[in-house]
Amino acid sequence: MIPILHELMSEGVRVWVYNGDLDLAVPFSSTMDVLKKMNLTIVKEWRPWFTGGQLGGFTQDYQGNFTYATVKGAGHDVPKDQPIHALNLFSLYQLSS
């Protein structure tokens, strides 16, 4: 996975990775371990994102056009568990391109 992400980033592809904060299949801690192994530089620290004034989760940006986001209250199937937050997150991704 790490070589693929690095290759995408080296080609200028914007990469977003997200997890539900209740995901037991791919837990937040596992994703953070991968990010540490990638040795990316943080360019924007953790900050909240919102859907209609409700906390949707947190996001952090890294050098190389890489963003990691969490979705509050979602498990492995984010769009099923938190459909409104998922739609907002995907919309934010599209708007930031």
General description of the model:
The chain has a four-stranded mixed beta sheet. The radius of gyration is 13 Å and the shape is globular. The two termini are 23 Å apart. The mean pLDDT is 94. The chain has one domain: Rossmann fold, CATH 3.40.50.11320. β2 and β3 form a beta hairpin. The protein is of the alpha+beta class and 97 residues long. Helices cover 38% and strands 32% of the residues. Belongs to the peptidase S10 family.
Number of strands: 4
Q: Helical proportion?
A: 25-40%
* Distance from first to last alpha carbon: 23 Å
Please give the oligomerization state of what you see. single chain
Largest sheet: 4 strands, mixed
CATH topology value: Rossmann fold
In what order do the strands lie side by side in the largest sheet?
1-4-3-2
CATH architectural designation: 3-Layer(aba) Sandwich
Low-confidence stretches: none
The ordered string of helix (H) and strand (E) elements is HEHEEEHH
Round the Cα radius of gyration to an integer and report it.
Answer: 13 Å
Shape: globular
The percent range for strand residues is: 25-35%
Any idea of the CATH class? Alpha Beta
What integer is the average pLDDT? Answer: 94
Number of helices: 4
> What is the total domain count?
1
Helices and strands: which structural class? alpha+beta
Family: Belongs to the peptidase S10 family.
GO biological process, one term: proteolysis
Main location: secreted
InterPro entries: AB_hydrolase_fold (IPR029058), Peptidase_S10 (IPR001563), Ser_caboxypep_his_AS (IPR033124)
